[in-house]
Amino acid sequence: MEKITGIGGFFFYGKNPEALTKWYQQNLGIGGYAENYEHPSWWQDEGPTIFGAEPSREESDERPAHTWSINFRVRDLDAMVAQLRAAAIEVAVEETVYPNGRFAHLKDPEGNAIELWEPAGIDLVRGEP
After folding, report:
1. Architecture in CATH for domain 68-129
2. pLDDT for 74-112, tens place per residue?
């Protein structure tokens, strides 16, 4: 069976897509669209990725107007949090350390939820489900 080998793109809508793309580039180091076919796309490091549906949060105060959530892997959660806070971005680090790693939460300028994940345990070793 053929299977997906990774995420080739993640697209979402924004009120000001150019500014939002620039925010992600400047604060999280994620490249946006290539200017032309001579410039490469952003390459992510190899590592674990979770892909799954979750219950609707329509009744939650957390993100009532948003229908997506993204989790980005990071090598050093503390360094990433310090970098974001230095840029005056509010970040909440979860106190619980889970068997699969540590997590932090923030929002982009349009209120979209972002989760940062520093993998640990079995997720540090490549495996097939």
Report:
1. Roll (3.10)
2. 989 999 999 999 999 999 999 999 998 999 999 999 888
